[in-house]
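Me: I'm a chemist; would you kindly supply a protein sequence with its C-alpha cells?

Assistant:
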Amino acid sequence: MRLSRSIISSLILTTMAFAQSPSTQPAAAPTTSPADVADVKAAIAAYNAAVESGDIKTLSSSIAVTTPVQKQAIDLMGTLTKASRGLYQAAVDTYGKDSLAKNNVAKEAFPSGCPSIPAEAQDIKVTGDKATVSVGTPDGPPPLAMVKKDGAWKIDGDALLPPMTDKQMTEQRTVIDAAIAAIDDTATDVKAGHFKGPDEALAIMNFRVQKAVRQAQMKLMPLEALPDDAWVGEVGGIGAPVVGVEKI
C-alpha cells in the first residue's frame, strides 16, 4: 500500500516543488563550463544525500534564502523530512527491506518536506553566478534555479518560496508540527511492534496525519468561518477540545 500524496499536498509549505516561472531563469546566454557543471552536480548530490538522511543542517545550508521567515520555512521542511526518514528507517529496522518490497512500500511512500532532485538526464546551464537545472524530458518539471553564494552553489529558495508573513509562518508551523507529531508517534509504535507490517503502519500513519492536519487547520479557522455541521470533540482521550467537520 502506497501512502497517498494528498496528505502532504494539503500542507501549504510544500510549495517547495522545485519549480518556478520561466521569468526567474537567467536571460543571458549560458556560458556553461565542465567545471561549473561538476560543481552544480556536486551541490545537488549533497542536497539529495541530506534529503535521504534527514540531515536538517545540510538541507538548510543547501538552499539560499534572504529572509528569516524563509529560513524558518526551510528548517520546518527539513524537520518534516527528518521525521519521515525516521519512520522509514524504523520500518526497515522492524520489518526488513524484503517485507517492505513484498508489501509494495517504497521509500517514496513516506512523506517528505524536501523532495529529491532527479539525478537522471540533468541538463545544467550556467551563466555567471546563476544556473538552471532541467531533467531534460518534455513532460518533466520546470527548470530549477540555483545561485552561487559565498563560493558555493545552492538552490535558489527565493524562487521557490512565496512571500510569507510571520503570522502565516506561525499558522503553517502549527499545521506541519501536527503532521510531524503524527509521523513521530507512528514511528514509536512501529518500533514497539504495534503493527502487523509496513503496509498497516503506513495506512495508520496516513490516517493519523490527515486527522492531525485537519484538526490543526480547523483550530486556526475563525469560528464564523466554520461549516454548519462542525462539531467539538476530544483527541486521544486527553480531553483537549478540538473542532472538526466529521468524526473519525
